[in-house]
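Training component of the fellowship. As part of building independent skills, the fellow (R.M.) carried out the full modelling exercise for a liganded target. The chosen ligand was shikimate-3-phosphate. The inputs are recorded below so that the supervisory panel can assess the work.
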Amino acid sequence: MNQDQKNNMSSSSLFSSKSSDLSGEIIIPGDKSISHRCIILSSLAIGESKITGLLNSFDVNCTINSMRSLGSCIDLNSSDECIINGIGIGSLKQSETPLDFGNSGTAARLILGLVSTYPIETHFIGDESLSQRPMKRVIEPLVDFGANFKLRDSEFLPIEVKGAEYPIPITHEMKVASAQVKSAIMLAGLNTPGITTIIEKEKTRDHTETLFKYYGYEIHIEEKDGMNFISFEGQKALNPVNIKVPGDPSSAAYPVVAGLICKDSNIKIRSVLLNPTRDGIYKCLDEMGANITYSNKKNEAGEITYDIEVSSSILNPIDVPANRAPSMIDDYPVLAIAASMANGTSIFRGLSELKVKESDRLLGIYNILSKNGIDTIIEDNNLIIRGNAEGPKGGALIETNLDHRIAMSSIILGMVSDEPIKVDDTETIKTSFPDFIELMKKLGAKLSA
Ligand code: S3P
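Fellow's submitted model of the complex:
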């Protein structure tokens, strides 16, 4: 480790060492995407909603604080339960302070959509990572509703929004496969008279659509000529709900992959959301020959959940097609760890969107693997990983660049490496999975300060 690297080690740095015999039954925290959306929709319903199983993380707290500043009454009763007294569509007030979105792209983009059809002015700020992420993709359709925006360098946070006083409904054909952009448009459409329509070429996670229905809001969804048409009329009412947020499949993927690649392991995870717009990584792991079983199918919050059981597996390499990206966009870093332990060469295709996540994740994955002795190539927007079931050499310091998924994936790789892997900052994991380290230790992971 050189001096620069030592300076980069924060008080939350961690060593991850070779682990085996992982075992136990765990519950994974609530789904992040659904938690953000439940806070927003409950705030817009008329009356009292109760949310249980909420993900209480830094990212979701940004949404809670922002919705409070915009007039919603939100009581966090316990770590994962909250009561919201919704104020109704059309009733948001102007925030007296800037809204701080920390590290959360989802919170920022969804609420940009929300405020764009109210006659209020809002100032959006975020951390260093969020302030480097592209925002034009979400602003462009929102301008068509009649809102005005001032962005730094026409692309980035901080952003000043002057919402439309008389919003007009739009029909928008999606240019990027992004559930955040789609959901921003849907939230803008809620306070807009007339019909808002969105046309998706590639289907993205559909939690906003499912939740509209769950809150009793009429929405029309139709697949035609290989495209997905979503339309609804604005300025109707959302009903308050009692809702239980299902377990996050992207968070579950870390203990799942650990259980597959560490020797003599068996892990059971209860009530994990498995929706066709989110299950790409599970499809991939099944195709790689992973020992995974799915049981106890249930319906929660309008979504399907399963209990998942995994045990140590011999993994085959995989060729992941580009069209699978929307259903596993957050899960490539941890799939890359599984691929590095497969018997042969894997290729992940069409990864351009990974470059605009919390960090440049294509480069981030490359760094985790190559610095720890795994032969990895980036070619165009494809990633080629030469796996070795014996496990890598390890020993590197990984700089996580404010990216929780890079931090968690590096920790999982350390658990099969000859020498411990050092992760510079684990604080960022609190954006999505606050108890990750405790939970992994409980399963038997050797993690130390
Ligand atoms: C999310 C959508 C995805 C995903 C993000 C959560 C959402 O982003 O990466 O973590 O909740 O809508 P994009 O819309 O940029 O693909």
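The panel noted the following from the submitted structure. Residues 33, 106, 178-180, 183, 205, 329-330 surround shikimate-3-phosphate (CB under 6 Å). The two ends are 16 Å apart (CA to CA).
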